[in-house]
From TrEMBL:
EC number: 2.3.1.234
Pfam families: TsaD
Keyword field contains Iron: yes
Family: Belongs to the KAE1 / TsaD family.
Reactions performed catalytically: L-threonylcarbamoyladenylate + adenosine(37) in tRNA = N(6)-L-threonylcarbamoyladenosine(37) in tRNA + AMP + H(+)
Organism: Nitrosomonas communis
Binding site for substrate: L134, V135, S136, G137, G138, D167, G180, N272
Residues reported to bind Fe cation: H111, H115, D300
Protein name listed in UniProt: tRNA N6-adenosine threonylcarbamoyltransferase
GO molecular function, one term: tRNA N(6)-L-threonylcarbamoyladenine synthase activity
Classification lineage: Bacteria, Pseudomonadati, Pseudomonadota, Betaproteobacteria, Nitrosomonadales
Top EC class, one word: transferase
Compartments it resides in: Cytoplasm
Length: 331
């Protein structure tokens, strides 16, 4: 079976073809970052209009790269939400039109399930059960994953998501949107120990997170210092160290409390090199293993949607809507 995946939830148009036997056949992506850069954030109207322009050429390109024709596609999977309404509608419309014209099934995929399952596209891949840390621009959640559609929420952020905190802090430091990656790069030049930031909810005794206070602490630091390149880098490093400390500590304790030995990281912040290094080191120390998606599948993409669609097709959508209730819709 070949599934065509369509992702249009925010500012990336992602298309992919996934074969249930041979794996990922092709994937294409167009990022609108440059369009939104000058506004310091995503402009929903511009995002929707650009998805309309990109979606068909990207589908054609994906088919060409996979060396198949449209009639060979057996099912359509598109991102149903959460995301920007106008942007999501583009994917829903093109997906429904293709499903209607080709007379094939259509699967509405939860964006977060796509992220959650994206590490399973890599080899070696984790086996169920595992603990997943979902760290994106809109979400920060720890989830116990017992199987496809069997998700138990262990904890989540009570305010900002980790990626959102990276982006807002980057903006305070004068970096372009989305600032997570730029902030991580700036932090590479920072001196550790010059600034000490709080670790919110470190000892809360649960698996919840809070990042908005950290952003406020950075804002206070910036007000009280003359921001040279080096000071900016030192602040970026202090911020990144605080976020990584909290994410790593809570993930490890979720793993141990649940008696599991596989940790899966998903979502855009999973591209952070220092977070990866820290988790590799700490899971190894306790005899556990950490799995990450390929860098290109950390942020939004069509491959994770095609893959989630293929898994659901094989599971025949059992209890699907019910099993998605663990993902809190915040955007
Ligand atoms: O998963 P994603 O593409 O979007 C959502 O579904 O929200 O994640 C995007 C987030 C942004 O906040 C971005 O700044 C952050 O991931 N991000 C990073 C890095 N690369 C992307 N954060 C920290 N370090 C990075 N290297
Ligand atoms: Zn996403």
């Amino acid at each position: 079976m070949i599934v065509l995946g369509i992702e249009t939830s925010c500012d990336e148009t992602g298309i992919a073809l996934y074969h249930t036997k041979y794996g990922l056949l092709s994937h294409t992506l167009y990022s609108q970052t440059e369009i939104h850069n000058e506004y310091g954030g995503v402009v929903p109207e511009l995002a929707s209009r650009d998805h309309i322009r990109r979606v068909i050429p990207l589908i054609k390109q994906a088919l060409k790269e996979a060396n198949i024709c449209l009639k060979e596609v057996n099912a359509i999977a598109y991102t149903q939400g959460p995301g920007l309404a106008g942007a999501l509608l583009v994917g829903a419309c093109i997906g429904s039109a293709l499903s209607f014209a080709l007379e094939i099934p259509i699967l509405n995929i939860h964006h977060l399930e796509g992220h959650l399952l994206s590490p399973l596209l890599s080899t070696p891949s984790p086996t169920f059960p595992f603990v997943a840390l979902l760290v994106s621009g809109g979400h920060t959640q720890l989830i116990k994953v017992n199987g496809i559609g069997e998700y138990i929420l262990l904890g989540e952020t009570v305010d900002d998501a980790a990626g959102e905190a990276f982006d807002k802090t980057a903006k305070l430091l004068g970096l372009d949107y989305p600032g997570g990656r730029a902030l991580a790069e700036l932090a590479e030049q920072g001196q550790s120990g010059r600034f000490k930031l709080p670790r919110p909810m470190r000892y809360s005794g649960d698996f919840n997170f809070s990042f908005s206070g950290l952003k406020t602490a950075v804002s206070t630091l910036i007000k009280n210092h003359h921001i040279t390149q080096q000071t900016g880098a030192d602040i970026a490093l202090a911020f990144q160290e605080a976020v990584i400390d909290i994410l790593a500590e809570k993930s490890l304790s979720a793993l141990m409390q649940n008696g599991l030995s596989q940790l899966v990281i998903a979502g855009g912040v999973g591209a952070n090199i220092q977070l990866r290094k820290r988790l590799v080191r700490e899971t190894t120390n306790i005899g556990a293993t950490v799995f990450f998606p390929e860098f290109e599948f950390c942020t939004d993409n069509g491959a994770m949607i095609a893959f989630a669609g293929a898994m659901r097709l094989q599971q025949q959508e059992i209890n699907y809507q019910h099993s998605m209730s663990c993902f809190t819709v915040r955007a």
